[in-house]
Amino acid sequence: MKLKNIMALLAITLLNSQIQAQNTKTPAPCGPLPTENQLRWQDLEMYAFIHYSLNTYTNQEWGYGNEDPKLFNPSNLDCRQWARVCKQAGMKGIIFTAKHHCGFCMWPSKYTEYSVKNSPWKNGQGDVVRELAEACREEGLKYAVYLSPWDRNHPEYGKPEYITYFRNQLRELLTEYGDMFEVWFDGAHGGDGWYGGANERRNIDRTTYYEWPETYRMIRELQPNALIWNDGGDRGDLRWVGTEAGFIGETNWSLLHKTGNVPFEQLHYGVENGNVWVPGETNTSIRPGWFYHETENGSVKSLSHLMDTYYKSVGRNSTLLLNFPIAPNGRIHPTDSLRGIAFNNMIQEIFKTDLVQNAKVTASNTRGGKKKFAASKVLDGKDDTYWATDDNITNASLTIEFKNPTTFNRFLAEEYIPLGQRVKKFSLEAFINGEWVSLKDALVNNGDGLTTIGHRRIICFPTITTTKLRFTILDAKACPLISRIGIYMAPDINQKKPQARKEQASSYSILQPTDRTLLINLNQEATVTGFSYFPPQDTRDGVITHYRISATTDQKHWETIGEGEFSNIANNPIWQTIRCKPTRAITIRLEGLRLVQGERIGYSDIEVITAEKK
User: Fold this and answer.
1) Which tens digit of pLDDT belongs to each residue from 314-332?
2) DSSP 115
3) How many angstroms separate the CA atoms of 423 and 247, rounded?
4) Cα–Cα distance between 542 and 608 in angstroms, integer?
5) What's the mean pLDDT in 334-338?
6) Phi, psi of 90, rounded to the nearest 5 degrees
7) N or C: which end of the chain has fewer CB within 10 A?
8) Contact call for residues 169 and 114 (beta carbons, < 8 A)
9) Which of 151, 229, 158 minimizes the C-alpha distance to 194?
10) Is the pLDDT of residue 501 over 50?
11) CB 45 within 8 A of CB 314
12) What is the mean pLDDT of the chain?
């Protein structure tokens, strides 16, 4: 009997020693892992979009493809000003729209005449792509290009021959302008266009037409360090987040399924059990539109709006791609410049003092009891160290004890993602008045918002004062690996977010005689000079993409005063304004020729612009 007890004790001891030995090893990877390129990209955190093309001179978001190259003649184009402003705004790189949907090339491509070489700027000898590449190198910024797959100018678009043209242009960009950190392919695909004079609608299958696998192989060969952003069917290295409003889901997995469609929920929140690493890139503009419009000079996003965007992008395991449109003179507008610089200054101000550095941190469990995985690793400022638990522990906590009562309103946590994204749910508690009080993310509407962490998670909450804070991993795919925590005090920013445009609160009599028609009665005859449409904000149902606007003074004879498209309205539902020749009218008719979805026109607000209102 004694022998059996001794043998059992030896077996238990041996098993425990094996477990202990296992827990002193580096944790095994968990799920899909990021590549070295993806890790470098995530560390950029913020970089700039630059939108500049013929649209700048036609007051459009999407050109039709028949705009005259002679329109491009900036008086003071200065790519070095762009680079300096972006750097001062905290951007680590720039992605430039080398070719937007209109097809106009901002470099002298040898494969088309529709480029800067046929503009009066620098007598056709200029190259914006090159000037910006050189400016980025001078300022120590990374550089990348946006090349629209959709080309509303090219006569062969929609045919196999266009793919050869597209790849030829891409090869020019990837071989003649230095290293690129990203290649950006817009998801807009097919529709109305000039197409060499055909003036027709061309539809393509976005999942097969562009033959992405071969294009990807070319990019990997020519720019091995570049990441591919693509919303066109085949998985790139990065994903869209499903909106251009500047935020990603509070739950954000850097994973997708390798194949299959990607609905909004997957774009916005990722896929917990995905089998490929495809992190989200949050793209938005510092103004309502992507291209410059003088009417938006008063609608540049406020500092509070930009900080909200930062917390909901970089602070949610994403990066922020912030657009700075170029004004017609060829420079970033002063308002945009100053707001971008103030944005970076505020980020630096908030995160310059980490209050946790003056605290003691203890863990409920440490992997193998080893210093290598101790709680102190979250404070050492190193990227390659982390607190870890034993393999069978997916519920564990860090307790932060301050020497004195400490006041703060921001909490930051980072996972060691080279070994995968693990944390599914966590909690935050502050010790206040002798008891633990749960905190929640003030930027979410439902629940506490304390779910995934990933590369970086920032939680905002009302200011508290405490001597202890407890950070608890409640659930994880595997033993959690936390590389950093931080605690900060952010100042109050007393600025309201401006609307995309001042809301008009329509005072007209509006009737809807059919699903696709609105009649706007002005109550008295006036000289109409324009029309503005504010689409529904909480749904795509009824959003007008193609319109016809007519005017009448007698309800019998109607004159068309405008017809066309509201470009990119599905993804960026801001005020849409068209101008028309002065026309006398008492009633305006708006026809929705095409809608994003649904059968009945929807709107949030409408404004009729008249000479009498000036």
Assistant:
1) 999 999 999 999 999 999 9
2) B
3) 20
4) 20
5) 94
6) 90, 10
7) N
8) no
9) 151
10) no
11) yes
12) 92
What lies within 8 Å, CB to CB, of 208 at 6+ separation is 233
Q: How confident is the model at residue 252 (pLDDT cuts 50, 70, 90)?
A: very high
Q: What is the dihedral of CA 558, 561, 564, 568, to 10 degrees?
A: -120
Residue 91 in contact with residue 46, Cβ under 8 Å?
yes
d(C-alpha 390, C-alpha 518), whole Å: 65
- What's residue 502's pLDDT? 41
Banded pLDDT at 4 (limits 50, 70, 90): low
By the 8 A CB rule, do 516 and 436 touch? Answer: no
Domains in the chain: ranges and CATH: 36-350 (3.20.20.80), 355-488 (2.60.120.260), 509-613 (2.60.120.260)
What Å distances lie between residue 504 and 567, 576, 605, CA to CA?
A: 21, 13, 7
Q: What is the DSSP letter of 65?
A: S
5, HSE (Cβ side, Cα atoms, 13 Å): 2
User: Does the pLDDT of residue 496 top 50, yes or no?
Assistant: no
The burial of 217, by beta-carbon neighbours within 10 Å (0-12 exposed, 13-18 middle, 19 or more buried), is given as exposed
DSSP structure string for 372-391: GG-GGGGGS--TT--EE--T
Q: CA dist 45 to 240, 280, 282, 314, 315, Å?
A: 15, 12, 10, 6, 9
* Paired tokens of 592: 């929705």
- Report the distance separating Cα 310 and Cα 603, nearest Å: 29
Bridge partners (DSSP) of residue 578 are: 531
Go through the chain and tell me how many residues it has. 614
Query: What are the residue ranges of helices labelled H in 328-439?
Result: 334-351
CA atoms within 13 A on the CB side of 88: 15
Say how far apart CA 565 and CA 593 lie, in whole Å. Answer: 9
The answer to whether the beta carbons of residues 194 and 152 sit under 8 Å apart is yes
- Distance between terminal CA atoms of the chain? 103
Q: Which two tokens stand for residue 240?
A: 């869209």
Q: How far apart are CA 463 and CA 609, in angstroms?
A: 45
> Is the pLDDT at 497 greater than 50, yes or no?
no
138 forms beta bridges with none
Residue 186, φ and ψ in degrees, nearest 5: -65, 150
Dihedral sign, CA of 351, 357, 360, 366?
positive
Instruction: Read off the pTM.
Output: 0.88
CB 324 within 8 A of CB 336: yes
What is the identity of the amino acid at 548?
R
Position 483 pLDDT exceeds 50: yes
Phi and psi for 230 in degrees, rounded to 5? -150, 135
For residue 548, pLDDT over 70 is answered with: yes
User: For helices 212-222 and 160-176, what crossing angle results, to 10°?
Assistant: 10
Q: Do the Cβ atoms of 194 and 64 come closer than 8 Å?
A: yes
- Which residues, 6 or more positions from 567, have their beta carbon under 8 angstroms from its beta carbon? 60, 61, 62
